[in-house]
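#struct-help
A.M.: can someone run this one for me? Single chain, 290 residues.
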Amino acid sequence: MAKRHIGILHPGAMGASVAAAARANAATVVWTAEGRSTESAQRAMEAGVSDAGTLNELVQQCDVILSVCPPHAAEDVADAVAGTGYNGVYVDANAISPARTRRIAETIECAGAEFVDGGLVGPPAWKHGSTRLYLSGTQAGVVADCFAGSLLDSIVMDGPVGAASSLKMVYAAYTKGTTALLSAILAVADHEGVREVLEHEWSLSQPEIAGNVTTRVRSNTAKAWRFVGEMKEIVKTFTDAGLPGEFHTGAETVYSQLAVFRDAPEPPTLDEVVVALRSKSIQGNGNDSF
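D.P.: on it. Structure tokens below:
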């Protein structure tokens, strides 16, 4: 396989691990530091990613570009790349609805590039077997080869553009949706004065919940601001399929309230989570810069 030149837009916690996985497979990986934060620059440096300078310079160097950004920014990033006249392979690996994915694909393909749909499942890919990149579209195999033998497992799906995004949406609908539900249940139980009894009952009748509820609820707070946009995309996915989206509209509200813990140096206690959820004011709107 020829050595690939890959661009990453933009290396957040997940994107940096994707970049490192590509680097481990002997690919040259670049990003553009223009307009990005010092935290992004630090992550890129630690992942061994070079600064290409501007976006125009990046697209000239790369035959594959991956977009790994918060959901609300996915179309802006794609529009910017399309505006450069890029004609390589563009991978949207963001947590967005299949309808939005297909809309972005049209933009990219009309500009002369080829489009691959990607869905990332799991935490940042820093250990074997933890994280998978599902891929769909005619060039999915080309992208999968970029990560062969790395810490990121790449899986080509037998389906068109939209299949990988659909999988990401329904997977996150359960994992993040049920975590939001657990968080809200704890807040209601606390409001009614039965939280301690509920937790004891869980330990008797639902040990699988009792054993991980604290970890699940607390560990998601730092990323809650990012999940707001993802819940919006899941709502769209459900309603497009003719199913209720209200489940995840509620989850969106939960994560909006928990966005107050963004950038906290340590995860909040369970009591602090409950207090935040019982607050009447919704903190954050999920449209922060990345």
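A.M.: thanks! The radius of gyration is 20 Å.
D.P.: also worth noting: The domain at 5-160 is CATH 3.40.50.720 (Rossmann fold).
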